[in-house]
Amino acid sequence: MRLLPAVLVGLLAQDVLGRPSPNPKSSWVRKGGRGKRQLHAALKQSAEVRRDVNETASCTEALAAPIKAPKANIWGQLTNDEAASVVAWLFAQEDLNLTVSDDAGAWDNTVLLVESMIPNKTDALGYIDGCKAPPKKYAHVVLDERASVDPTYADIIVGPLPIDNTTTTWEPLTYPYTKNNSGKVRNLDADADDALYSEWLYVIGASVADITLDLWNITAMGLDNDTGDIWGIDPLWQDDDRIIRWDAFWNYPEDDFDAETLLPLGLYFMSDVTGRDPSVWSLEGWLYNNIFYNSTDAFREAYFSPGFVKNGANVEGDWARTDQQGEVLPKDDAYPPTTIAPTGSRFSVDAEEKYVEWMDWSFYIGFKRDTGMALYDIRYKGKRLIYELGLQEALAHYAGNDPLQSGTSYLDTYYGFGPYAFELVSGYDCPSYATYLNTSFYVTETVHTHIDSICLFEFTGDYPIQRHSTSKYVSVTKNTYFVVRSVSTVGNYDYMFTYSFYFDGSIAVEVRASGYIQSAYFANNEDYGFHINDFLSGSMHDHVLNYKVDFDILGTNNSVQLMSLVPATKEYPWSKGKTRNTMVLERSFVENEDESRFNWAENGATQVIVVNEDEKNEFGELRGYRVLPYTGTAHLTVKNSSNLVNAAAWAEYDIQITKQKDTEPRSAHAYNSQDVKDPPIDFAKFFDGEDLRSEDLVMWVNLGMHHVPHTGDLPNTVFTTAHSGIQFMPSNYFSMDQSRQTVNMVRIDYDNGTTTLVDTFGQKNDEACALDFEPAEPDLYSYTGDVVIRKFPYDPNNPYFETDSIV
Ligand SMILES: *[C@@H]1O[C@H](CO)[C@@H](O)[C@H](O)[C@H]1NC(C)=O
Ligand SMILES: *[C@@H]1O[C@H](CO)[C@@H](O)[C@H](O)[C@H]1NC(C)=O
Ligand SMILES: *[C@@H]1O[C@H](CO)[C@@H](O)[C@H](O)[C@H]1NC(C)=O
Ligand SMILES: *[C@@H]1O[C@H](CO)[C@@H](O)[C@H](O)[C@H]1NC(C)=O
Ligand SMILES: *[C@@H]1O[C@H](CO)[C@@H](O)[C@H](O)[C@H]1NC(C)=O
Ligand SMILES: *[C@@H]1O[C@H](CO)[C@@H](O)[C@H](O)[C@H]1NC(C)=O
Ligand SMILES: *[C@@H]1O[C@H](CO)[C@@H](O)[C@H](O)[C@H]1NC(C)=O
Ligand SMILES: *[C@@H]1O[C@H](CO)[C@@H](O)[C@H](O)[C@H]1NC(C)=O
Ligand SMILES: *[C@@H]1O[C@H](CO)[C@@H](O)[C@H](O)[C@H]1NC(C)=O
Ligand SMILES: *[C@@H]1O[C@H](CO)[C@@H](O)[C@H](O)[C@H]1NC(C)=O
Ligand SMILES: *[C@@H]1O[C@H](CO)[C@@H](O)[C@H](O)[C@H]1NC(C)=O
Ligand SMILES: *[C@@H]1O[C@H](CO)[C@@H](O)[C@H](O)[C@H]1NC(C)=O
Ligand SMILES: [Cu+2]
Asked: I need a labelling partner for 771 at 20 to 30 A (CA). Which of 75, 102, 356, 589 fits?
């Protein structure tokens, strides 16, 4: 559940401060909670200590070697000092009329976000590929302008940095918008953390407290002893110039498990909340058991009439709790197989610049509030393949016979992937030998650092990358690959983002989903999901996640070739006058933006290859990289969504290709949900017929899942099958497979029962660390959550711990 307090826009702290939560869930309590202690003890017992190898290298000293990045990371984050200087400068600008967040109410202007501005590619290339100076650095600032009856979010840029009181200026950030409006978006949530609840939703909750007590023994009135909750649709309905919300009652879990999204109660009410004056907001009706009542009186009268059908409540139980339950599986209390890095890490990291080198790969890591982690300047064997690779937006579009499910289409960058990219759990989210990086985000004049929130590690797959056997020899090569990973818990859902790099020059981009589903009350909605618990429907929804892939294949002049396998009937000189039913290849190019939005072909029959038409290999074939689905992908099933209108056109196709433009850096804006008819970025407007042959191209690809939760999604969806991915693979890019270069392969020659040769190609096996298993299991008591540094007033020497989630 992404409860929407206006706020969240950057802004967890406001969520925590602002949203009255009768059931405050301190992350501290939760994370330090039960279970951990027993687990730790169990691990100690099962740890076997062996010290018969080389004592000089320890398996835990496996961290990546430090390295100096060849160039500064121009996509990186602001330093603490830079962020603090920008904030101080902003508060000194009288025209911005800002109030410090701690003192601000719903009618004050505040700073929501201060982060680095991504440089224009045009300026960046001269630096990363040449000898030009780095592009000037600017800060991207988002202001929450609420001191007005027409509140807006304003994107501005401040710079150049470092701040200089005489030369630094700000101006509206307009160029990434497709909408012509000076870098501002209306704010429909300006009162969502205050008046909406205190003067509206809880008042309505109180007005039916007798009914909610009678029906389910709950009250939702904004009191400390509330036993239920009220929240509703996102985005709000924006029809006919009215702003309409539907809200529903939800049961609270009985403990700290985050199960509220599994506890819908089936009563909904509709409000017209247009404008900022709650006294003119109106209650438009109630829905219960598929019957609409046009006033509270009408609902109340029906409720207390004979024959009124009352349905039961969804109540938390073990079915909604994630702790171990059920009989312990055979031998499962013994420690499972695990991976180690016996010679330490085989890669290098510049932690300051977030620059990584592994084997022939290198890249920089960026991190943004809206979209979390992104990779830049991805090079293989010294040549850039991809300038920018990163998430743009994630949509979860629900459907249902009830207005809450029907009205829910989360556009998650509104909440942000950055603020919820929490600390990873060593040995669980990533192998215990992984190297970690911190990330940080700005909120309410503080910078929060998620410690260890990006992990980097090598992994050897459970299948080899190559093998072949004959009567004389067998040849087989280990499939060791490099992984960069982060996880963002956006409300009820946990998205795991993984990028993997392989020896054959291929890259995999994957997302997995776990956490709690958002479910529906089961009543008259068989066509929208499975019946999965007492009064519970696993509410159907589409996940669509858009990624930007700015390929630069052997330069920026790229084209997209389509090569299809098609059935054919052919006659050949040798077929003696008869025809043969067979198949052939048909090649074409995506010529321009009128034909550059399409889906994966049925039966995978069309290859999509990014090529450089000026770069042919020695055999005359175009050198390129092919883009292909890895596991299932999805685009949005709903056509012309009533919820989204023009706010998520990027979700309409699997693959969409545009000409790279500095004015089109992102396919979506974090506040598209605030004005769905006229969103700040309407992706469909990127397509204006421009030529796509031998141009700098951007491919926008969608990952996703059509999710119809079943009983196996209780208590949580599982990563095994809630999974989507795409791959990029060399297509005639090299003259042969590049995995031949690794020494981690073997050839075994044998003859008539005798092994005659074991060739391990100079692998060194003598530098392994002591297999001291106990310390290979990380000390999970070091899991601390986020660390926070106050920026205004700047207090860099007094960090404190605070971790806030949406719920
Ligand atoms: C500045 O903001 C305050 C609220 O913080 C508001 O009362 C005042 O009218 C605003 N001033 C201007 C000039 O907009
Ligand atoms: C710049 O302005 C800020 C805020 O008014 C002030 O604190 C700072 O001392 C000024 N710096 C310089 C170099 O004048
Ligand atoms: C954008 O707005 C400006 C100022 O309001 C106006 O002059 C211009 O014509 C508008 N452009 C478009 C394409 O609507
Ligand atoms: C109703 O809820 C209260 C707590 O809010 C609890 O004490 C009481 O036992 C419940 N009554 C029933 C009938 O479950
Ligand atoms: C909840 O608190 C309110 C106000 O403190 C009180 O009037 C009410 O009786 C309480 N309800 C329950 C069920 O304890
Ligand atoms: C509500 O419905 C009743 C009966 O259908 C109708 O008489 C009444 O006018 C309606 N009221 C409103 C405010 O629409
Ligand atoms: C992450 O932050 C923690 C706490 O501030 C710090 O101790 C650690 O060195 C940081 N890690 C990296 C890789 O910068
Ligand atoms: C890219 O193509 C354009 C013409 O389409 C050409 O002028 C330019 O020289 C090419 N650039 C490179 C690096 O080949
Ligand atoms: C989308 O739906 C709206 C409302 O039903 C309709 O006005 C509009 O014409 C539709 N657009 C398309 C492209 O079908
Ligand atoms: C980046 O490109 C946009 C669009 O061309 C331009 O308006 C803006 O000034 C550029 N930014 C910088 C820092 O040059
Ligand atoms: C294989 O080895 C066996 C004895 O180990 C021998 O009898 C036989 O002749 C050998 N066959 C060949 C083809 O060398
Ligand atoms: C242990 O490893 C070090 C460095 O890798 C090596 O120099 C040394 O000879 C090894 N010692 C033994 C006993 O294998
Ligand atoms: Cu789902």
From this structure: 356
